[in-house]
Amino acid sequence: MSFLTSIFRKKKEEDYETILSALALDIHKRQVRLSEIRLRERRSTLLVTLYTLAGWVAYISLWYTGLLPKRGGRAASGLERAVKAAPVIVGPIIILFVRRIVQIWYKRKGDAEEKTLQTLLKQQRAKVEEIKQKTNYYSTRDLIQRYDDSPSNPGLRQRLVPAPPPTQPSTPQRPPAPPNGQAVSMTPNPFSPQPPTPLPSNPPRKQWYDKLADAVLGDDDHTPNPSTSRYALICEKCFAHNGLVKESMWEDAQYICPKCGHFNRSVNSKKQARILTPSPSSTASTPLPVTA
């Protein structure tokens, strides 16, 4: 009996809300962790630069004033003087080399975190597409756009109703009130379920040494700042992450994805193309001139 029950038992459906919420939470954590890695990279680079530079300056001072210890208390030979003067010349190269090692180490950590973030974004997109396929989202949307005759589709109304003949101007009348169904739908329902609140992004705040790092090392394009928001560049075709841009540059940013080679147009160019290209409803509703 239990064997027959297990055969005819319906398979438990996946809880998509729980899966998507877990993915969104994980993506948020990865983004915050990536911001912390970028900020720690700048802090460590600044501290290493300051400490090595201070040590180099202190050595130059001791070498210039002759306070370096001598071997056996006798006069230094030519080889000993050359050895003592070598750190003065090689010091800047050592400083740059140590800085580069710190940057490479943090870059490897940041790249690994960013790769994990891209994988999570692809999983989220794939799960959304799976939900759309299971709920017949695309076919339902096409049927609604094709056969919907509601007032929300002005193109069909303009094609079916002929234009009235011109009349003399009269007293302006008040527009008709919307139907009761529309009035009720526009009224917010306090008992209706509200959409889930998006997770706030809390990037680490910059301290005084971070501002000093910006002054010494230059402005950082990876570390988010509350005063300057950053927008992620996601490819429209393969959904790969292509870096961050400032809020003022986001609408004009267009680029070629290095992964799939797809050209992603800017938001402003898409808006201009949408304005210049006439829609089918507007061309069909344009009245034709009538000759007498």
TrEMBL record:
Residues 162-179, 190-203 have a biased composition (Pro residues). Residues 208-264 form the Lunapark zinc ribbon domain. Its main location: endoplasmic reticulum. Residues 142-207, 272-292 are annotated as: Disordered. It holds the Pfam family Zn_ribbon_10. GO terms for cellular component: endoplasmic reticulum tubular network membrane. One of its GO terms (molecular function) is zinc ion binding. The chain crosses the membrane at residues 45-65, 85-102. It is a multi-pass membrane protein. Keywords: Endoplasmic reticulum, Membrane, Metal-binding, Transmembrane, Transmembrane helix, Zinc, Zinc-finger. GO terms for biological process: endoplasmic reticulum tubular network maintenance; positive regulation of endoplasmic reticulum tubular network organization. The keyword Endoplasmic reticulum applies. It is found in: Endoplasmic reticulum membrane. Residues 276-292 have a biased composition (Low complexity). It comes from the Eukaryota. Belongs to the lunapark family. The C4-type zinc finger motif is necessary both for its ER three-way tubular junction localization and formation. Plays a role in determining ER morphology. This is Endoplasmic reticulum junction formation protein lunapark. It comes from Lyophyllum shimeji (Hon-shimeji).
